[in-house]
Amino acid sequence: MNTAFLVVSFMNLAFVLGLLLNLGGLLTWVERKQGAVMANRIGANRAYIPVPVGRDPNGAGGFKWSKRFTLMGLFHAITDGIKMLTKENFTPPFVDTFVYNLAVWFSAVPVLVTFAVVPFGGPFQPGVMMSEVLTMVGMTGAAASVGGFFGDGVYHMQLANLNVGLLFIFAIGSTGIFSAALAGWSSGNKFSLLGALRSSSQMISYEVFMGISVLGLLVVYGTVDFNEMAQLQQQTWFGVIPKWGVLLQPHMFFVFMTALMAENKRVPFDMPEAESELVAGYFTEYTSMKMGLFMMAEFLEIAVIAGIMTTMFFGAYHIPGVVAATDAMHWAMHPELTPVNAIFGAEVPHALVVVLRVGAFLFKLIFFCWLQILIRWTLPKFRYDQVMKLGWKYMLPLSIVNVIATAAFMYVLGGM
Amino acid sequence: MSEQLGQNADFDNLIDGHVMPQPAYQGEFTEGEIVKYYNPSRMTLLEKLYVPAIIGGLMITARVFFTNMAKWGIWFTYWIRGKGKDAPKGAVTIYYPEETRPDYSPINRGKHILTMRQQKGPSGEALPQCVACYMCATACPAFCIHIVAGESPDPNIEKYCVEFDIEMDKCIFCGYCEEACPVDAIRLTPEPRMADYQRERMIYDREYLMTWNPTYVEDDHVYPGGHPREE
Amino acid sequence: MSDQVTLTIDGKEVTVPRGTKVIEAAKQVGVEIPHFCYHPGLPVDGNCRMCIADVRTWNARAEKHFPARRPAVTCWTDAEENMQVFTDTDEVKKSRATVMEFLLINHPIDCPICDKAGECMLQDHYMQHDGKRSELREEKIHKPRLKPFGERIVYNGERCILCSRCTRFTAHVSKTHDLGIVNRGDRAVVELAQGSTFDNAYTDNVSDICPVGALTKTDFRFKKRVWFLKHTDSVCGGCSRNCNTVVDHDRAEIVRIMPRRRDEVNGHFMCNEGRDIYKSLAATVRTSAPISRVDELGAGPSWDDALAWAGGKLGEQKKGGKLAVIGSPWMSNEEALVLGHLAGKVCKSAWMDIKNDVIEGYPADDLLHTDDHNPNRAGVIAAGVVPGKKDGKDLAAIQEAIAAGEVEVLLVWGTGLANHYDSVEAMHEAVAKVPVVIQLTDAMDALSEVAQLVLPVRNWAERDGTWTNFEGHTSRFRKALRPHGQARDGFELLSAMCTAAGGKPPVKTFKDARKKLKQDPDSDVREVADGEFAFYKGQSLYRHHSGTTEV
Ligand code: SF4
Ligand code: SF4
Ligand code: SF4
Ligand code: SF4
Asked: Which domains does chain C show, CATH number per domain?
């Protein structure tokens, strides 16, 4: 483990944390604003920052304030944060304090940790990339030293390059159940307990076929490593149609997406919270930032779900036609070609490819966030029995049939 | 005949992607017939599969979303030139206190008014039309009208209201008071703006109800000519 | 000829004493015959023709019913053996509608500003028997309006339907002959007799019995619409007659007091003083919590502390016999029962008497009013608070003993002890010699300024109880208003004092108390008042009618 590796890891870490936490906050705003636009409304627009625009003509030394600077209501996300942090942090006297506080951590931490294995850009050479950029702006000296520091090393744009990628996600993601179950149980409130029971049974039910539904895809990919999956999706049929997961297993795309959304406990699967029945479900007794963390975890999970969907079904960071010299899998598939950074065969700098890929990943990520919020504002809530029926009677058999069919198909075909 | 009742012959009226159910029964009711209303159970296979229907729904909401976003884009081109106020927006709602709508319905039920008599009282004072019959207070489902009756200075009138308070924060604008009044003394004008920062000021007394200046005057009935309550 | 006759009214058989009017017989089988001028408390006049019905008499010789040549007025017709009465034939209905139409020709339909609206017989009958629009196109006849009849009544000639109830009342009941009907035809109006000021003690009854809003009380005029009122059965405490009343109240405030029919006590009427009694109630000064002037308790003791202290002081008197108990003729029978027990059985009081709480009022007359201005002297004595019960030691003896400093504990119920002294100062001086004065009262008076412990109790409008009038008839009053502050029910408080003094209350419940007093708890069943129709009872007009308010 050398210094360059550490530096790259910290860069990745900073990028991911910055991305996720900002996205979490931003999504609270997107949620309101998108819902409003979908419903012909204006949406959040009241929080503002007063901007001084000069001296007050009549006041003695005071400022003349501009009109309210609302920036499309973006400050609502900030005011929410301030509100959460400054509200009284009240612990009801009847709760089991230790478990009660522990549950909060179980809500946000697993969500953040899951993102560790999601690759947000392809393998890249920081040395090459940075020296290219620095040369372009004319700092040749700095370019040489940075290039020398990183060398030709190839790194992954991913926090943890685990070869068990998907299993890691299932393992960590399922601890999210603890959050709801512990919070509901320790709150000493029957609404909370009902919410906890509902969330436990809902999440466990949906986790069953969440795993099974992607087995088919894994059979096709032959790996659970997210990096390899991303690379594999760069292949094409007839040189034009990318072999993205969604084209390989479109039906399972819906099943997996449903399962993930049910895990997130948002409308239409918001049984555990169900404002109209259970006050706020399992986090009824939580106040201030503790409650804020539960909410935050939900919004973070939107982003995480979007990341997973992108990686598994939508070619991760892949843009058709764009390849990098570091794409090992691609060049292994095409031994007749020479590894270069290229867009549709035209050679380009490595930095451009990296930027394009990160951009593509972000674009897909944001698209899936948008899609989830679209679903949340479109579909009405299910009844509890409908949730269970959907899970056990339709999704689960469908997934199992799919696994068997895919396996048989692959056996007959003898590979992808 | 009767098994057709409630069933809709032309359920294929598709408006904007939604099935618009027609009124189930539009004829005269004949005695002895039991009219049943139910939703048609004519789901196609595509609808039963659920996923296509969901995608269809998402398409509709997405279309609304993008249409509105495009409209906001056009709005932005106005706004950047400083003409944001008059530009068409991508929403049907408004920024309420800054913007107001000019197009309230003339039959909108808003702020109350007490009409006045054309003849002045013996000492020249303005007299309300109200005869303090308490019909409005009786009809009011919110119990928000409080009247104190008294002997009118005009002996021909006999009874009138000495005090007449409406708790506007309790009022549900049902208009029953207007309906109940036998002498057309209380009316709900279309005026919708009543918000205030103090609860006490939401209790409108007789003087205010008689003298506030309604913007919407729909006929030549004697409306008072006073001033709005001072801020 | 037997005294009873049996007749059939709308197919229902009823047996009544000979001489009963058909309209009364019909009431007994639940058939309501509409009427204006008939009033059970007044001589029959039969001028309104509203109570017309198809009456067929039995001809014993021909052995069949003879159809009447024309419908008969049932308020005038005596019930006869084997008579048949039909009150809902088409002909009768048509006749009623015609009567209504005539009455309404010149009626101003002032209902919005008419105080009778809501309990107006004309309104009720219009809704039930007429319901047509006016066909009249001419200007209505105008008559004097706003005409004062004395201080308390205002007459509106346009609303008057000339039923003559009011004139019959002044002629036959109050016998003052103040009112009469003058002029003829559509100019007829009720007029005050020349020289009359209409200021006798019973004037307000004419407003009650007036079927329409022609006679309104200045006291109630424009005060409240009647459908907002809640009605609670009560008893007037103005004198020992105990007229049965209905307390009409709204928003914890008594608006008016109306008489309630009780034939053996007050008949149908009551006096003006009794109607105004609610004003004196509102004027009393009251305390909302116990007041003490002893150091152990502090100025504002809690109920528990106050009771414990009082119980201790009373408990010391178990053998000592230095206790004087002064009851009040305003106590209910049940309270008197417990007080008598507390004084005689739990403690051994040496002196016992009843004081005169109120000594001023209307003079007695031969109609209703008596010269005892307190309601329940007879009942309190019967229940056990007997003046001079022990060795004839009565109020005079108490006063002597107080002056001699022999009394250690003085237990007083109610106000007005100063009435028995020359002046308030004299009373203060005398009472200062008693170490412990405990007063249970619903109003503050001179004694409350010096008593060691003042315990607030509820007044008659706030509690349940019975009073017995000077003739021995017991009437029940019910709780109408929310109790003032922490004031406690006298029965319950005295029972608690028995316990605190180390004894046992004589009875557990109100019902037991009445059983022990051998009072018939059903002796005061409320009749449907005249002009109040069962037909309308369940309808929205009476939606505010809820009887006793239980808080
Ligand atoms: S509009 Fe309805 S709620 Fe408002 S005052 Fe009139 S009757 Fe009452
Ligand atoms: S109903 Fe009309 S006349 Fe009667 S009290 Fe109300 S406003 Fe006055
Ligand atoms: S007397 Fe009766 S009918 Fe006539 S105005 Fe009064 S309430 Fe109306
Ligand atoms: S004033 Fe009333 S009681 Fe007297 S005659 Fe007229 S309607 Fe009858």
From this structure: 4-89 (3.10.20.740), 105-223 (3.30.70.20), 285-526 (3.40.50.740)
